[in-house]
Amino acid sequence: MTYPWHIEALNPPFGDPGFYLFNHASGQALLFDLGDLHRLAAKELLKVSHIFISHAHIDHLIGFDQLLRLFLNQAKHLRLYGPPGIIAIVGHKLRGYSWNLTAHHDLRLTAHAVHETRIEQTTFACRHKFHPEPAISLPRPSSVICETSTFSLAAATLDHGLDCLAFALQEPPQIKILKPELQKNNWLPGPWLSQLQRLLRHRMQNTAPPEPTLIEINGSSYPLQQVADTITQIRPGLKIGYVTDTGCTPENWRRLLPLLKDADMLLCEAAFLEAAADKASVSKHLTAAQAGRLAGQSRAKKLRLFHFSPRHAHQAAEFYRQAGEHFAGPID
Ligand SMILES: [Zn+2]
Ligand SMILES: [Zn+2]
Predict the structure, then answer these.
(1) Strand pairing of 232-235 and 136-139?
(2) Ligand 2 centroid, distance to 8 Cα (angstroms)
(3) Where are the beta strands (DSSP E) in the chain?
(4) What's the CA gap between 240 and 152, in Å, rounded?
(5) In angstroms, what is the span from residue 245 Cα to ligand 2's centroid?
(6) What ligand is nearest to the CA atom of residue 246?
(7) In the prediction, which pLDDT does 2 show?
(8) What would the pLDDT profile of 97-148 be if each residue is shown by its tens digit?
(9) DSSP H or E run through 200
């Protein structure tokens, strides 16, 4: 399958953690964590609209200033999500600079603090010297914390000695219109095609109007199902999991398995090798073997490892070997 997302690590596996995900269809990008960003080109970073921060340890947030500087003169609205406390941390970072010459810039940044049952949000506008607007608190009825037309994003709160978020990005089902079939039926493209896609999406989300639904094409009416069977191909949306800085505890596992279930790609930290499993346990990180087990038990199709501890420098191959003892799918 050609991935609709280009997934790029911010750094090599022994460097700062995080991933840049670019969606080919929408032209938008998102970031999982904000390690050092200098390897990414400015024109790629400027496509970012959403940033998902697992926790505020410095290796996951040091890129914030780089991103801020790049976006400063852009009339854009960035959305940042993180664990409880992230709004104060973003506020402190913004207060660390003087903003007397930037009141003509229209950059806005909304920070969201993800709690178990609610999401608190505050907007900081460059025009107002990044003084925080009053916070709003919204209920969080499910694991989903963010929904756009391109993806929805669910999160679970894990224990890393502090609250640390794991993420699962889910695309909606993708409906492809088969142009040769359109021509065979002499159905001319028109607004009915968007109507068809909208109705099919609603039906997949169980919000469809009662059947039978008719679609009008060039003056004639056809049942929705007949049109869908004739000219569409539907593939399930892609699922991408992101897990970092988490202890291998029964409670973390209980939260991770449903979040990551059947992911097409699992991006997972592997901080330590088995020889340092005690270090992993004390610092609440995963070993390569535990990352492999997580991928296997959550039935991921592919595993990508990152965030290797420098104490194992020169042993990169061993991370993949140890993870591979517990996961039969491809690992890179
Ligand atoms: Zn870390
Ligand atoms: Zn950490």
Answers:
(1) unpaired
(2) 20
(3) 5-9, 19-23, 29-32, 48-52, 77-82, 108-114, 118-125, 136-139, 144-147, 152-159, 163-170, 174-177, 214-217, 220-223, 232-235, 239-243, 265-269, 303-306
(4) 11
(5) 5
(6) 2
(7) 64
(8) 999 999 899 999 999 999 999 999 999 999 999 999 999 999 999 999 999 9
(9) helix 191-204
DSSP class of residue 127 equals G
Residue 15 burial (CB < 10 Å; 0-12/13-18/19+)?
middle
Task: Find the 263 Cα to ligand 1 centroid distance in Å.
Answer: 22
Q: What are phi and psi of 308, to 5 degrees?
A: -75, 140
Q: How many CA atoms lie within 13 A of 174 on its CB side?
A: 17
Q: Tokens in use for 40?
A: 């990414």
Q: What is the pTM of this model?
A: 0.91
**Strands 163-170 and 174-177, bridge-based pairing:** unpaired
User: Average pLDDT in the 242-257 region?
Assistant: 98
Tell me the CA–centroid distance for residue 299 and ligand 2, in Å: 25
Centre of ligand 2 to C-alpha 310, Å, is: 14
Give 241 Cα–ligand 1 centroid separation in angstroms.
17
Cα 178 to chain centroid distance, Å, stands at 29
CA of 189 from ligand 1 middle (Å) equals: 50
Rounded distance from Cα 308 to ligand 1 centre (Å): 9
Ligand number nearest to the C-alpha of 17: 1
Counting every residue written for the chain, the total comes to: 332
In the structure, ligand 1 is a single-atom ion and the residues with CB under 5 Å from it are 59, 245
Measure 32 CA to ligand 2 centroid, in angstroms. Answer: 14
CA of 84 relative to ligand 2 center, distance in Å: 15
CA of 280 to the centre of ligand 1 (A): 12
| Euclidean distance between CA atoms 75 and 85, whole angstroms | 27
Answer positive or negative: Cα dihedral of 255, 261, 263, 267: positive
What distance in Å separates the CA atoms of residue 215 and residue 220, rounded to the nearest whole number?
8
